[in-house]
Amino acid sequence: FRRAALHKAEEGLVCMCEERARMLQDQFAVSVNHVHALAILVATFHYDKLPPALDQDTFAAYAARTSFERPLLSGVAYAQRVVHTDRESFERQQGWIIKTMKHEPSSVQDEYAPVIYSQETISYIEGLDVMSGEEDRENILRARATGKAVLTSPFRLMSNHLGVVLTFPVYLVDLPEDAKVEDRVSATAGYLGGAFDVESLVENLLRQLAGNQELVVNVYDVTNHSNPLVMYGSEIPLATPSPSHTCMLDFGDPFRKHHMICRYRNKP
Ligand code: WA2
Known about the structure:
By secondary structure, this protein is of the alpha+beta class. The protein has helices at 2-47, 56-65, 84-94, 134-146, 181-186, 198-207; strands spanning 73-80, 82-83, 111-112, 115-118, 150-151, 155-156, 162-171, 188-196, 215-221, 229-232, 244-249, 258-264. The protein contains 6 helices and 12 strands.
């Protein structure tokens, strides 16, 4: 009887973990797809029209009305690529000066990525050079070099929640799939991205599922297998080695690897 009960508990664990991994991966994928569509929206209405047929109010209104399409993102924004020789005319035209993510006036850099459009929910990012943040900068460089959606490792977002940033490049011209990196860089207009507020939005997602009380869920960035990084969940050390189940997760960035580990809160 005891063996049968244990077996049943382990089956339940596998089932509940797979359900959660699938849900998280699906909600991640739809959110990424919609940010992709927003990157095309900016390319179409900001760059393919002269003068641009997009402004902060229009972007913010559209982002707010479509936020249901991006269930795991706390907000989206668009940062324009500005090279140093264009800084002065950019600032004059905008009527404000480029600031760092620490809210200081930006010192001289080769180039900047000031946010010109943002969803109201993350309005604190407006006017900030997102290249001044280490994680954001790395993401921007990788996004424009590959032409693909990229993710940061988990870090404390400006909201002070643990999460990851998603970045899509926006180019001034259509590029072939096999375009060279230097051609991608010179054709870069800017970066459309958003914040996956994993700490609060995944919590919300899991709370709605049956069995939430009895389960401990952790998500890790295991890109570097010998140094797993917590992306969701607390690192409560479990006293006794309890049965666990691990599910692979695919968040759409082949450069990063993630997985989910589920355990019972109380040993069954
Ligand atoms: N967005 C929201 N919160 C953040 C953040 C961010 N980056 N970085 C740290 N906290 C406009 O990749 C371009 C958004 C960056 C996109």
